[in-house]
Amino acid sequence: MSQPLITLYDVPASIPQPWAPNIWRVRFILNFKRLHYRTVWIEFSDVEATLRSINAPPTAYRSDGRPIYSLPVIVDSLRSRSHPTVLSNANIIAEYLEVTYPARPIFPDGSRAVQSLFVHYIQEVFAKPLLPILVPLTHQVLPERSQAHFRGAGAGVQLTGAQREQAWRAVKEQFDFLASILDKNNGADGNGVVVMGNDVSYADFALCSVLIWIERVSPHDGWARVRQWNNDRWVRLWNKCKDYMDVL
């Protein structure tokens, strides 16, 4: 019999490697903890129907009470084939994987609250200036059906040259600020690259997931810029995390 697996649901694209940062946060954890998993690819237009069919919990609710279904989602059959655990929301999944599979922890002792706050900052503040740049570029690399799913929502609207440069200046302000904070770790691992000072953790995976998004959808513009910022700090973080970038 084949070994039971954790199934990770992700969205396909025309580029060779996956791009979605919230899903990468989960993939990093699965790879770091050396858990057996597989990826199932579903287009955006099929997400709600697919997640309903596996009884995945909604990630939010609209003002009228209708549920919203989104990725990442995992189905964990490693512990029980007959009663698999189905979870949505990257942070909920991270907490579950840490508690259920405590070997190779992503939350060093006493760091859970601080890391949770850091990840919230990455998602709600740090990454926000990237949206007008990367969302249209991401739209371009989606399959046609998924592109059609987002038409009319402004996803395909490209910035002009001046608008793009202004947007990148706002992005760099966030990177510069974060670099100044992480520089306070200098002396811990010799260069202050990782958030917790010595070993990679969930906070680093959340941050590196944003770097992957930039590199996947804007390798010659966005990543070419970012990799040169802050004394190559972001390339060094990438290298710290690259052993956990497998796609299974």
Automatic annotation (TrEMBL):
InterPro entries attached to this UniProt entry: Glutathione-S-Trfase_C_sf, GST_UstS-like_C, Thioredoxin-like_sf
Highest taxon, organism lineage: Eukaryota
All residue ranges annotated as the Glutathione S-transferase UstS-like C-terminal domain in the record: 113-244
Protein name per UniProt: Glutathione S-transferase UstS-like C-terminal domain-containing protein
Organism: Rhodofomes roseus
